[in-house]
Design a protein that fits this description.
28 strands; Rossmann fold; alpha/beta; Nucleotidyltransferase, domain 5
Length: 898
């Protein structure tokens, strides 16, 4: 008797994946639908492949769950749901309802808990379960009867996990996965784990002792270093396990029979897809229903005709085939390369798409290399290395930075990266950030790529080849070739080297900081308990709310579905009402500083190098700025002294080296002066005046010598507020004046700098006409918010239009400088390395004897990256660590810097 299959889908995970995988898509009425379209596409594909007997889709309900009661910082730094995604959830649920698929939610529980509950019930009934999710927490549910399909990049690539695959990937069994999370933590959910214990150590401990509880009970049997960590963080580890454990008994009111699925109701889907304007799905449904399409619904020229793209490929199995492949690559002069593997492990397989011999069809020929095959492994890697090293062969890749990491595992350099489809797609539409070739092939080539096995990698290489031509032409038409070929493409290699070099860290100082913060947090806790009259969990939203608003009877500012709101805005509003409030705010800051930055960074130090190897994201932000993660070194707080001191731990790689910091001075205001062409602003920068003092004199109508510190502070807020499109309300709040005063400051500013007002108005007007704005190097950002019926959303779009042109140009400038600096460091064979980029600042690790040379070339390239109507100015500092850098005096004869 065939087994009964239950498909359980994590709705939140799939919706988020779809939103980020599919570019902006809207109906003719302006309703955003990209997440709905991507979700529906994935749903149809999985249903067709699995053909389940039962189906359910689980969603989170509410922001606060029972885990927030256990740990107030749970998911604390998760970004808010994107504004364009939130209204798409009801549309997704409407599609599911029309497909007769039950939608399950439960107040106070996450989708994971509902999935765990369904799996537990289903296994008792002898059902085979398949979970579709992007959340690795679900791996704890894997069993002989349950598998997990984990979404990877985009929405088209899936990785299947059974018990053997979980063990192979993580070194633990599925039922040890929560114990594993208890030790290593999970930054995405802000689960702290045990700082300093990584995946390998955690797996070894659990292999030896079985459970986390057994590990902590046998601390005395462990090596000294592990004893210290587990003694200090025993309770934190147990709490982390508790947070990571999926609840398997949530109060779901549906029984399994309610999840039985007989297929979609096409008659109900027809009006839904018609309203969403999903023409491809409409044609499919009409074919199923046997309905003839009328003229207006027939596919128009250029409309997508979806078809699966099955690529014939040659599997290289003999030594002589490898020699021939190398010859073909050199004859072709261009190779599209697709690699399969993970960082730290090297590639397991490679597919190479080449220019075909004449008259052999329009597409490339594809060759497949199994790099794990014992018989050919060494020879295959040598052939791959010869292709990658050859500067005469152009390489086409998708996500070249990851490819560089994979190849570096075998010491293989990559010469002549000629195209990166991920970077190109990002430039054409920043909403395409990080999308998989399968997603791009669907959008740009009308092709559906297979998702598994050797044919998937072969199709990926073929798609990269085809996409390079299509996207290259689109870059040309959009006039973004300079931005792509001079800035973004060479930056791929620069960022890869920065990541591989890493940043050396003083681990002992980091431990000291953790202990210091622990002491300060404990002291604050005692003061808070004293003022509250009792001990309670300060990190618990509910317990803190009860203390503040019931016991201390403070005025209630805001309530949520589950109780009182105690978020930062509420506490700041209550700041003068009770002495406990500033203590709670400081407690929160220090707890976050300790868990996220100090302990979080300690856990990410590579034990082999003693360094942090952050990941730079080149294709994420809409403005073109870089971001970083694991750890996020661009977000280290600097407003409080404890946050600034974290920079002490960033040290040079070796004795005799220095940290060099090069920071653009007020680059965004200088870009504004150039783009606005305002003569007063330009004159101030050309004369090297303090721009905030000059603005204060202009706005307040006094001589420069009469500007007070208070005036300058307010003028500084106005200067930067203009860049970010601040309102009179926002400025009034920031500088603690009335809205009337704030409005006068802004009006006075525009009177003195009329070119800025003209520039803002012109930018918004042109953005409405084109639908996008551009930077000086022609980077585009599309702004659908400008056409929103919601006035608040529309105003945000207007502010974004102005800010993007300025912030995006500043990002282009520093990227251009990075590429040129990196090139000259290599050409001069200097030992200095660029190790970090933090917004407008570049950090270098420099041998002391190279400092004069490096300082000169860094300043030269940064200050001359682009020629503006005002000078670009760089402040240079050097020292034994990032915190203790001191200003380097300017070369004699140069004008004074600000």
């Amino acid at each position: 008797m065939p087994e009964t299959t239950f498909l359980i889908i994590d709705g939140n995970s799939l919706a988020h994946r779809a939103f980020h995988a599919i570019p902006h898509l809207a109906t003719s009425r302006g309703v955003t639908t990209n997440a709905v379209f991507g979700f529906t596409s994935m749903l149809f594909k999985v249903l067709d492949e699995i053909k389940p007997d039962l189906v359910a889709v689980c969603f989170d309900k509410g922001k606060v769950t029972f885990r927030h009661d256990q740990y107030g910082e749970y998911k604390a730094h998760r970004p808010a749901t994107p504004e364009d995604l939130r209204p798409q959830f009801p549309l997704i649920k409407e599609v599911l309802e029309a497909m007769a698929i039950p939608v399950l939610e439960c107040e106070g529980y996450e989708a994971d808990d509902l999935i765990g509950t369904l799996v537990t019930r289903a296994e008792k009934e002898g059902l085979s379960c398949i979970i579709l999710t992007g959340d690795r927490d679900a791996l704890q549910l894997v069993s002989p009867m349950t598998r997990v399909l984990l979404t990877r990049k985009g929405i088209s690539e899936l990785e299947e996990f059974n018990e053997g695959r979980v063990w192979e990937r993580f070194g633990v069994t599925p039922d040890q996965f929560a114990d594993f999370k208890g030790l290593v933590g999970d930054p995405s959910d802000n689960i702290p784990g045990v700082p300093g214990i990584g995946s390998k150590t955690a797996a070894a401990l659990l292999k030896e002792y079985g459970r986390l509880e057994e590990v902590v009970s046998r601390i005395d049997d462990l090596p000294a270093r592990q004893q210290e960590k587990l003694r200090d963080y025993r309770e934190q580890a147990l709490l982390s396990k508790q947070l990571a454990t999926i609840e398997r008994n949530a109060p779901l009111e549906i029984d399994l029979d309610g999840c039985r699925w007989a297929g979609p109701d096409y008659n109900r889907l027809l009006p839904v897809f018609s309203r969403l304007e999903f023409k491809t799905f409409l044609r499919t449904i009409r074919e199923k229903l046997g309905q003839a399409e009328d003229g207006k619904d027939k596919p128009s020229p250029g409309e997508k005709q979806l078809k699966t793209h099955r690529v014939p490929f040659q599997q290289v199995k003999r030594g002589e085939d490898l020699s021939l492949l190398l010859q073909l690559c050199r004859r072709s002069g261009r190779v599209a390369l697709a690699l399969c593997g993970r960082r730290g492990e090297g590639p397991a397989a490679a597919a190479l798409a080449l220019q075909p011999p004449e008259n052999e069809g329009p597409g490339p020929t594809v060759h497949y290399l199994d790099l794990d095959a014992p018989a050919l492994r060494t020879a295959a890697l040598e052939t791959l290395g010869a292709v990658c090293r050859d500067p005469e062969i152009e390489k086409l890749l998708h996500d070249g930075k990851t490819a560089l990491w994979l190849l570096q595992h075998h010491g293989i350099p990559l010469k002549n990266l000629a195209f990166d489809t991920m970077v190109a797609a990002y430039l054409l539409n920043p909403a395409d950030a990080g999308r998989d070739p399968a997603d791009l092939a669907l959008e740009h080539l009308d092709l559906v790529l297979p998702s598994r096995g050797e044919e998937a990698l072969a199709a990926r290489a073929d798609a990269i080849w085809r996409l390079s031509a299509v996207l290259g032409e689109k870059l040309r038409l959009a006039e973004m070739e300079r931005l792509f070929y001079e800035v973004e493409l060479p930056l791929v290699g620069v960022l890869a080297e920065m990541e591989m070099t890493g940043v050396a860290v003083n681990g002992e100082r980091l431990k000291e900081m953790s202990r210091e913060l622990e002491g300060k947090i404990a002291a604050l806790s005692r003061q808070i308990y004293h003022l509250a009259g009792e001990e309670f969990n300060i990190n618990s939203t509910r317990q803190l709310g009860n203390i503040l608003f019931e016991k201390l009877e403070l005025p209630v500012v805001k309530k949520t579905k589950t109780g009182y709101s105690t978020d930062a805005s509420v506490l700041e509003e209550l700041a003068g009402s009770h002495p406990i409030i500033p203590l709670v705010l400081e407690h929160r800051q220090l707890v976050k500083l300790k868990s996220t930055y100090v302990d979080g960074m300690a856990a990410l130090i590579n034990p082999a190098t003693g360094r942090l190897h952050t990941t730079f994201h080149q294709t994420v932000t809409a403005t073109g700025r870089l971001s970083s993660s694991d750890p996020n070194l661009q977000n280290i707080p600097i407003r409080m002294e404890e946050g600034r001191k974290i920079r002490q731990v960033f040290i040079p790689r070796r004795e005799g080296n220095l940290i060099l910091a090069a920071d653009y001075s007020q680059i965004e205001l200088r870009v504004l002066a150039h783009m606005a062409g305002d003569p007063n602003l330009i004159e101030a920068f050309r004369q090297g005046q303090d721009i905030h003092t000059r603005t204060a004199a202009e706005v307040f109508g006094v001589a420069i010598t009469e500007v007070t510190a208070g005036m300058r502070g307010r003028a500084k807020a106005v200067n930067f507020g203009i860049v970010y499109g601040i309102s009179d309300f926002g400025l009034a709040r920031d500088i603690n004046v009335s809205r009337q005063e704030a409005r006068e400051y802004i009006n006075n500013y525009f009177t003195r700098y009329p070119g800025v007002k003209d520039y803002i108005d012109r930018t918004i007007r042109e953005a409405r006409e084109k639908g996008y704005v551009t930077t000086l190097l022609n980077r585009r950002r599309y702004l659908p918010d400008l056409f929103s019926a919601n006035r608040t959303v529309r105003s945000f779009g207007e502010r974004t239009a102005v800010n993007t042109t300025i912030q995006g140009t500043a990002a282009d400038i520093i990227k251009l400088a990075m590429v040129r600096i990196h090139r000259e460091l290599q050409e001069k064979k200097l030992a200095a390395r660029m190790i970090l980029q933090v917004h407008d600042e570049l950090i270098f690790d420099v041998p002391a004897e190279e400092l004069p040379v490096v300082q000169e070339l860094v300043r030269r390239h940064m200050e001359n990256a682009l020629v503006l109507d005002v000078p670009l100015v760089v402040d240079m500092k050097a020292g034994p660590n990032w915190y203790e850098v001191k200003k380097i005096e300017e070369p004699a004869g140069e004008p004074p810097r600000q």
